[in-house]
Amino acid sequence: MATAATLSLKPPVSFFYGGNQRDGGRRVTVARVSRGEKFHESIVRLSASTVLFLGLSSLRVCSPASARLLPPPIVATENEISTETVAGEENHEVEDEKLEADFEAYKAKVYSLSVPLKLVALRGSVPPSWIKEFMSSQGKRVRLKTRFLANLEEIFFDLSKPSKKGKKGSASTAAADMISIGDSWLSYAIKEKLIEPMKGIEDQDWYKGLSDRWKVYLRRNYAGEKAPDGEMWAVPYRWGTIVIAYKKSKFQNYKLAPIEDWDDLWRPELAGRIAMVNCPREVIGAVLKYMGASYNTTDLDSQVAGGRIAVENNLASLMKQIRLFDSNNYLKAFNVGDVWVTVGWSSDIIPVAKRMSNVTVIVPKSGATLWADLWAIPAVSDSGKEAEKIGGRVRGPSPIIHQWIEFCLQPTRSLPFTREVIPGASPSALEGTLVKEPKEAKKDRSKLDTNLISGVPPPEILSKCEFLEPLPEATLLEYHLLVDTVKKQSQRPSLVEKLQDIVSIRVPGFRKKLDSEMKKNI
């Protein structure tokens, strides 16, 4: 009678760790058979190994614990499974040469264990070379799916919008393993429970290598406030600054001094020649830096010289200088020549400045705001059924998210930034040394007139730059009300403007002639 075969589906430790010899006491045992039952033994072994392999591919992907490990690149062959896993064979020779030849041929077959990784990212923020290099480093083990959206607002909207009929689908942002999120959205995303904290990261190499400045900024409590003992909610992969760009040719033609700092925006000759992003914290922040205060001022009366009244007066003066506050069209006005100066994010301005001629881009000497693009994990329901409805993330994100983060933070990943393929800088450049590119590469690239060094402000300016930290709701409300109040006041026509309007109604062509004379006098 044939000897019975027994099978245990618990995998050996060596399988998970690519040959690591730590023994977890987990073995696959196949009882030996008599010489007369060799063919039956072969079938049993093949069946057991096949079941083991298929079972492990499922366990490896779905195991919650695997999300906290750094699994090795897996293109597994049966040769990688230790021979000690077959009980009773250590000290015995295979009796039948044909059977051993068949078994060795079976073990030599290659099986690719594919692990999915879904990314939803801001278009233009991830260097194309990253995708190719990551896939190349992982071989066939990764099924990488990427989806790029036009702006961070679109990603955030897709993440927060309610599901339709209880389902969002596998293409939804909420079904992704990681998404791009701007640091200015981080607090709100945490409070609204749109993302989840990154657990068990202290032992990850990428976390150990992350600078303290990033850790302090990104550790938050569940209210989205900075907290030293809070959770880590996101990881940076790119950052930049607010910059000022101006048309050097116009400044030279009219013999104007170059722009170097925030106070230059208040120069009378630039009135009506400036466009700026429509962001209350950036607008108020420019005034605060002009007054020698911090972007993250929480009390205007106690922390700023002259208090709220002085801030309001300087803001009113700046409003008269700005022709356009518009985050969507401020660069269009600059490009067509309606304005000579523009203030905005480096990720927007630098690509446009490169396409134009005679444009200078600077980070103000007294410092500017810093922005960052982050990787975050979308929050999903704890319920398996609910999670299944939004694309299959039943047991957490992909187990290789830490490998993706580790890859993005490697020093060599900064080359697309230093080569100016993508505007911005690597997170390591915030407090570390820059990776220098070959001189030959610099010769082949057009030079942009800027004080940025490979996308990074000079050290003496960078030390004065600040991230926009979470502010109390009362302070944010005060900022918004202040901007709205001053805007309404600045929109009221003066007595001279009223007289001009009256005359233009009665005298045809008066307004056109007046505008022409004003341009001549600039």
Automatic annotation (TrEMBL):
Keyword Signal: yes
Protein name as it appears in the record: Uncharacterized protein LOC104757797
Key words of the record: Signal
Organism domain of life: Eukaryota
Gene, per the UniProt record: LOC104757797
Signal listed as a keyword: yes
